[in-house]
Design a protein that fits this description.
The complex is a heterotrimer of chains A (306), B (361) and C (548).
Chain A lengths: L1 H30 L7 H19 L2 H25 L4 H20 L14 E2 L9 H5 L1 E2 L1 H19 L1 H11 L1 H6 L4 H27 L11 H11 L4 H21 L6 H5 L1 H16 L20
Antiparallel strand pairs in A: 1-2
Helix pairs in contact in A: 1-6, 1-9, 1-10, 1-11, 2-3, 2-4, 2-9, 2-10, 3-4, 3-9, 6-7, 6-11, 10-11, 10-13, 11-13
Chain B lengths: L1 E7 L5 H25 L4 H13 L2 H26 L7 H19 L5 H30 L3 H21 L32 H20 L1 H11 L1 H6 L4 H28 L5 H4 L3 H11 L4 H25 L4 H22 E7 L5
Antiparallel strand pairs in B: 1-2
Helix pairs in contact in B: 1-2, 1-14, 2-3, 2-13, 3-7, 3-8, 3-10, 3-12, 3-13, 4-5, 4-6, 4-10, 4-12, 5-6, 5-10, 7-8, 7-10, 7-13, 8-10, 12-13, 12-14, 13-14
Chain C lengths: L16 H5 L8 E11 L2 E12 L2 E6 L6 H8 L7 E6 L2 E3 L4 H6 L2 E4 L11 H8 L8 H15 L15 H14 L4 E5 L7 H16 L3 E6 L2 H7 L2 E6 L2 E7 L5 H9 L17 E11 L5 E11 L2 E6 L6 H9 L6 E6 L2 E2 L5 H6 L2 E4 L3 H5 L6 H4 L11 E2 L2 E2 L1 H14 L16 H13 L5 E5 L7 H16 L3 E5 L3 H7 L2 E6 L2 E7 L8 H5 L6 E2 L14 E2 L2
Parallel strand pairs in C: 3-8, 3-9, 6-7, 7-8, 13-20, 13-21, 16-19, 19-20
Antiparallel strand pairs in C: 1-2, 1-4, 4-5, 9-10, 11-12, 11-14, 14-15, 17-18, 21-22, 23-24
Classes of the chains: A mainly alpha (306), B mainly alpha (361), C alpha/beta (548).
Chain lengths: 306, 361, 548
């Protein structure tokens, strides 16, 4: 019995990690006022880049680095479109999702059916992983998990207690007031979008070189969209994102747990997406969201314009 | 030193508009070529193949028209939704829901009713199915402030799983040797097609009529006016006494309903049975987004825009076979072109001049 | 670093910690703007403007709304780039490409619409721009300095308080503190008194005079002659984008300045005749309305408005006027109380039903609420009336009738537009306002609710609008006028209510001698018990109030 609980808990954390990584990035991006709906595509690009580079080089860390860079590069397109060219942020994000999914399918095709020989394996932290019950769950995870937790806490700290965090948050609340204080709003937004893209790439890498060993098209399976919902659920707070991400990780795992009950696997597969709606509904009823969204989210800003 | 001087344009002429459009498409094609090179494909050959595949032969043209039918329907519906700034990304599942409803009607009532009765009933069922599926995110947005991009997308995933459940489970065809299809629709329920093609002309006519109707609705009716005000400034709409809730619901019924009709077209006109979501709709709901955008949210332009993107789809199929590229290639096309289209809009609003930097200024 | 901004508040003249930390910076002795020109959308906002200001001097920048004062100062602050011209500090040419550059050169600005992050605390706002704030826990580290600073300004605030909790006057002082923290030698203030009570205005002037004595340079933008004469040493007058005159305030008087500003003798006389009022149009009973954050904004307010009357609500913005107007026009939920038009209960009805009952609304924030900027002028001309039979029979819009109506409106209300087929958002603010006013008045509504209708308009347009309001009054309409402009209130209103923190401090008739205390009423220091009984007619010249 205990083994089942441990296994479920482990798998929950594994499933939630890519969601957490993506959400941290999106929180940073949205806090600066830019809505990035391209997360799904950026995750896909991260995934395919990580896979190919790991495949070719045999070094998963190199793959991870490449994925982060690829995510940053493609989010640069979103930054240019949204910030400098003041294009519609919703459509820009959608276009990049299409593009990202397309590129990932295109580049990944030759690799279907050719699994990796080396990938990220679980790394047990010495001493801590020997603690009964807690050890195997929390301290015998893939390096992505440890990085995700560390990054989430760092992001939370930076946003709340550092000067650059104040700058980012102010940019999202009122770019005019921020610019009037001598802060370069465009620069801050560019950085936040690119960082967000890097996180999305990392999340994608998590899927392709840690979660699984093989490449399949459509690996992201809508997780990018769940990330966007999670950003709202987390009330734009990276520490709350941790809870949300692993909650959804649990729902992903739940599918498999309920299968033996004879429920159609397809209906179970719809669980995470239905849960997203339910979660958003609860937040919508509670109205707490209205008090926390960055006030000028998705509004284009031009210096000097009132 | 050269300085970039950006000024706002006061008026946009048709010539400028067209020029920017061409520029965006050209830049898009350039980028797509680059991506092709990256994946080891000769871009010139690929693009050439795409356009000859879709417009270079009678077969291609007929296929292009066939694929344009759902795009016209969904695209014009989306122009209404987008004008109200309701980002309906769920047209894909609205199409499928329409298909599901229509299949049920066709399989259950079809054998008992003559064609002139069952066909309109199926179309109506499709409209209802798609419209109802679309109303749910509309309610979620107006009553619960849930972002419609996420809700319509989640509906896509939920519907796809639901549909798969139906065809491998309760609706599995008895005459299909265990394949995941429903039974075929009875003969009366199958739409007639133009001989020598797959064009189900009834849906095509319906599509063109809808496009024209929606043009009138948007530009000449009170409802269309209210939709446009909501899209331009929701605060002013509230101030003007426009009922946000009712108007949004109506907009989504239209958008979803048209997608549902497209679904009927696909099932009753082409496949004749229900099968996997990917088989019934190869991304029409997403492609229609770009169709609507390229048409500048003007239903009258949707016809041309649909043909263009249908051509890319058909051409994409062509090179899939000849160059062994995955279906995702079309997404690369669409995503890149859309990206450059919206980036190009900057040049509609601003004029760029290069000038030598004056020492005085 | 001697004579630096914050040190002058130290009685013993020693340098404070802030100054010790800060890098020495060029002190501005003399600032010049030469030949500044700027156009927007083909419209000239600044035309070869020259301006100069010296250390220890307060310069007034006078002009009516739309003259180009704010544009000029926004150029100085780096928010706009001039099309031509240069800026010199102490004789050296400098380029200001952004507010960051401006701050670096020692220029600070207090904008008309505050540039504060409402959801953040006071210290977070100051730490945002303060270069010396540390990277980690910046808001905690500078809290002490902020408290010390604010004590000098007689401002006891909790630096951890979120800004939205502070009054307008307090927020303005935070803006000044912010500018000084950033090391401003030159301080620009854009129409600072529009949100202050008379007492706060005199406090502000005291602070500015102190700063001047310590060598600061101050530019005060205003269209109010009293302020310019009372505070400034010199004044530069702008009109239609050009400098029309410079003067020492000792050498001129208000009439001369007014003539320079407008180019003609301004006759401030509008005749408001006696009219019988007997029919009640609007009855507001014990209204309770909440604000966006759930706080009480309209606190059990009752009043009536009659035909042939302009009822004014005076008071500093932010005391519930906006919420009251929104409640009456159906844009905000009423928690308790009743509103009746001609006897019909319109409490919490939809905006459209209320409109159909006879209430027209000229909104305070015109671009935000009054128009759809991307639609054409003729489309906005019927924004609230598009459902009426004359503009849409069955489901179709009657474009012919609409366009003709628009042409009539544009002509009668002198809306300057190239054609009725341009995007409404491209029109200037004043013309948009005229369009909206024309749209609402032309339907001869029984009740016209006008919130700050002349705000931001040039004198000619403001005068025209005021005449239209009086015309409406004469024709038998009723007008609810919300305004911060006391001159306008006195000029137009038959009865005046003063609103403070959601309640009416008193309702006085025009000409009531107690109106001299209106400043106290606005600041909440005085309350007159009004006895407004529903159904009772107010009498002229004897106020319907009892001393409280």
């Amino acid at each position: 019995m205990e083994d089942i609980v441990i296994s479920v808990a482990q798998r929950t954390l594994v499933a939630g990690t890519p969601l957490l990584l993506g959400t941290i990035g999106e929180v940073i991006c949205e806090r600066s006022g830019i809505l990035n709906l391209g997360v799904e595509g950026m995750m896909a690009i991260g995934a395919v880049t990580a896979f190919i580079v790991t495949f070719v080089s045999g070094n998963p860390w190199l793959g991870l680095l490449a994925a982060i860079l690829a995510g940053m590069l493609i989010s640069l397109a979103h930054a240019v479109a949204s910030i400098t060219l003041q294009a519609n942020q919703v459509v820009s994000g959608l276009a990049l999702t299409m593009l990202g999914l397309g590129i990932s399918g295109l580049l990944g095709k030759p690799y279907i059916g050719r699994p990796l020989t080396v990938k990220f394996e679980s790394a047990a932290i010495p001493v801590l992983s020997d603690i009964p019950f807690v050890g195997p769950i929390f301290f015998t995870q893939s390096p992505f998990f440890y990085m995700a937790i560390l990054l989430a806490l760092s992001a939370w700290f930076i946003l709340k207690y550092t000067r650059v965090g104040i700058k980012i948050r102010s940019t999202g609340e009122s770019p005019h007031a921020t610019e009037a204080q001598g802060v370069n709003v465009s620069a801050i937004r560019y950085w936040c979008v690119i960082v967000g893209g890097g996180f999305a790439g990392m999340a994608g890498a998590n899927l392709s070189i840690s979660y699984s060993k093989s490449w399949i098209e459509g690996m992201t399976a809508g997780r990018g969209w769940i990330v966007i919902a999670l950003t709202i659920f987390a009330l734009w707070n990276p520490s709350r994102a941790v809870i949300g991400a692993f909650l959804f990780g649990g729902i992903f795992v739940l599918q498999y747990l309920l299968q033996p009950l004879g429920i159609s696997p397809n209906l179970l597969a719809a669980l995470p997406y239905a849960a997203t709606l339910v979660v958003l509904l609860m937040i919508g009823l509670g109205d707490s969201r209205k008090l926390n969204a960055p006030a000028m989210l998705a509004e284009p800003y031009k210096r000097g314009e009132r | 030193m050269i300085r970039i001087h950006v000024t706002e344009r006061i008026q946009v002429t048709g010539k400028t508009s067209f020029g920017v459009l061409l520029g965006s498409l050209a830049a898009g094609l350039l980028t797509i070529s680059f991506i092709f090179i990256l994946s080891g494909v000769n871009p010139l050959y690929a693009i050439f193949k795409i356009f000859t595949g879709s417009f270079g032969s009678w077969y291609g043209i007929k296929e292009t028209i066939t694929k344009a039918i759902p795009l016209i329907l969904i695209g014009s519906g989306l122009t209404v939704a987008f004008r109200a700034k309701f980002w309906n990304i769920g047209a894909e599942s609205q199409l499928l829901m329409g298909a599901i409803f229509g299949t049920w009607v066709g399989l259950n009532w079809g054998p008992h009713l003559p064609a002139p009765v069952i066909v309109p009933v199926m179309f109506i069922a499709g409209f209802i199915g798609g419209g109802m599926w679309a109303v749910i995110p509309a309610v979620l947005k107006t009553r619960f402030s849930i972002n419609e991009v996420i809700s319509t997308l989640m509906m896509n995933y939920i519907c796809a799983e639901f549909m798969t459940f139906l065809i491998v489970g309760p609706w599995k065809g008895k005459t299909k040797f265990g394949f995941p299809y429903t039974d075929d629709l009875p003969a009366s329920a199958i739409l007639s097609i133009l001989p020598g093609s797959r064009i189900h002309w009834m849906t095509l006519i319906l599509a063109v009529i809808c496009t024209l109707l929606l043009g009138v609705v948007i530009y000449r009716t009170r409802f269309g006016y209210e939709v446009r005000v909501i899209g331009e400034n929701p605060n002013a709409a509230k101030y003007a006494g426009i009922d946000f809730f009712k108007t949004t619901l109506a907009v989504m019924v239209i958008s979803g309903g048209l997608a549902g009709i497209a679904g009927i077209g696909e099932v009753a006109g082409i496949h004749h049975h229900l099968s996997y979501p990917d088989a019934i709709s190869s991304g029409y709901g997403y492609t229609a987004i770009i169709v609507a955008w390229l048409a500048k949210l003007n239903p009258y332009y949707v016809f041309v825009s649909s043909l263009f993107f249908a051509g890319i789809m058909v051409g994409g199929d062509a090179i899939q076979i000849s160059l062994r590229l995955p279906a995702a290639t079309v997404d690369v096309f669409n995503g890149t072109l859309l990206m450059f289209l919206i980036m190009g809009e900057f040049f509609l609003k601003h004029r760029i001049r290069l000038q030598r930097r004056h020492p005085k200024v | 670093m001697t004579g630096s901004p914050c040190c002058f508040y130290r009685p013993d003249g020693s340098s404070c910690v802030l100054c010790v930390l800060r890098q020495p910076m060029k002190k501005i002795e003399h600032l010049e703007m030469k030949g500044i020109s700027k156009s927007f959308h083909g419209v000239v906002a600044n035309d070869r403007i020259d301006l100069e200001v010296r250390s220890g001097e307060i310069l007034g920048l006078l002009g009516e709304n739309g003259a180009g004062k704010t544009t000029l100062m926004n150029i100085l602050y780096g928010l706009y780039q001039p099309d031509a011209g240069e800026i010199r500090i102490n004789g050296n040419r400098i380029r200001i490409t952004s507010p960051a550059a401006s701050i670096q050169n020692g220029i600070g600005m207090v904008h008309q619409h505050f540039m504060l992050i409402q959801n953040h605390t006071v210290v977070e706002n100051i730490a945002l721009g303060y270069k010396e704030a540390p990277f980690f826990f910046p808001h905690k580290k500078i809290t002490e300095s902020v408290i010390r600073f604010s004590k000098k300004f007689n401002l006891e605030i909790d630096p951890q308080k979120p800004v939205w909790r502070l009054s307008a006057g307090e927020q303005q002082r935070i803006e000044i503190i912010k500018a000084l923290f950033n090391g401003a030698d030159l301080l620009i203030l854009d129409e600072p008194t529009s949100v202050l009570t008379p007492q706060e205005i005199s406090d502000l002037f005291g602070i500015l005079k102190k700063m001047k004595a310590e060598g600061h340079l101050i530019i005060l933008i205003s269209h109010k002659l009293d302020e310019i004469m009372g505070l400034c040493d010199r004044v530069t007058v702008l009109s239609k984008g050009r400098v029309v005159g410079n003067a020492d305030t000792g050498d001129v008087d208000k009439r001369i300045l007014a003539r320079m500003m407008i180019g003609r003798e301004v006759i401030f006389n509008i005749v408001r005749e006696e009219l019988p009022t007997n029919k009640e149009v609007l009855v507001v009973e014990n209204l309770l309305v909440l604000g966006d954050k759930g706080r009480v904004r309209v606190d059990h307010v009752s009043f009536n408005i009659y035909q042939n009357e302009i009822f004014g609500i005076a008071g500093v913005s932010g005391n519930g006027q906006r919420e009251l107007v929104e409640a009456i026009t159906g844009l905000r939920k009423i928690v308790s109380g009743k509103i009746r038009i001609h006897g019909n209960d319109i409490t919490n009805e939809s905006p459209r039903k209320i409109y159909n009952s006879g209430v027209s609304h000229v909104p305070e924030e015109r671009i935000k609420f009054g128009i759809a900027p991307g639609l054409f002028v003729f489309e906005n001309a019927i924004l609230k009336q598009h459902h009426l039979k004359k503009y849409s029979h069955k489901a179709f819009l009657a474009y012919g009738t609409i366009k003709q109506h628009t042409r009539d409106l544009v002509e009668s209300y002198q809306v300057h537009t190239p054609s009725i087929n341009v995007k409404t958002g491209d029109l200037s603010g004043g013309n948009i306002q005229k369009l909206i006013l024309g749209r609402e008045i032309s339907q001869t509504p029984p009740l016209l609710v006008a919130a700050h209708p002349t705000y931001g308009l040039d004198v000619g347009a403001a005068e025209y609008l005021r005449r239209q309001l009086l015309k409406r009054r004469r024709e038998g309409g009723a007008v609810l006028l919300v305004s911060e402009d006391l001159e306008e209130i006195f000029e137009l209103c038959d009865r005046i209510a003063v609103m403070f923190e959601g309640a009416f401090m008193g309702i006085l008739a025009a000409g009531d001698p107690k109106l001299k205390d209106i400043g106290l009423l606005m600041a909440g220091s005085l309350r007159l018990r009004s006895t407004v009984v529903v159904g009772e007619r107010p009498t002229r010249h004897h106020g319907n109030t009892k001393e409280g």
